[in-house]
């Protein structure tokens, strides 16, 4: 299990803090949150059971989860640019 991924994404004069946090293999999901000046603008839980079902070694499982989190944060950044997430 990895703890999560964090990014600060500057856009249009604001610094958005985008965070993905692993909620553990028992829940098999992670939560993504977008903050603007400490206020949560958006949050969503995303499952990753498919990664666990592959039966990968721990290191590869963590790498796959981190890649999914990174991809998700990139998608969230694109949504911010498109104006879909605003404070």
Structure, described:
The chain has one domain (4-81). The chain has two helices and four strands; from the N terminus they run ββββαα. 33% of the residues lie in helices and 39% in strands. A four-stranded antiparallel β-sheet has the order 1-2-3-4, covered by helices on one side. It has helices at residues 49-53, 58-81, and strands at residues 4-11, 14-22, 29-36, 39-47. The protein starts with a strand and ends in a 6-residue tail after the last helix. With 87 residues, the chain is of the alpha+beta class. The mean pLDDT is 94.
Quick rundown:
The chain is built from two helices and four strands. It is of the alpha+beta class and 87 residues long.
Proportion of residues in extended strands = 35-45%
Mean pLDDT value: 94
Distance between the termini: 31 Å
Which runs of at least 5 residues are low in confidence (pLDDT < 50)? none
Helix fraction, binned, reads 25-40%
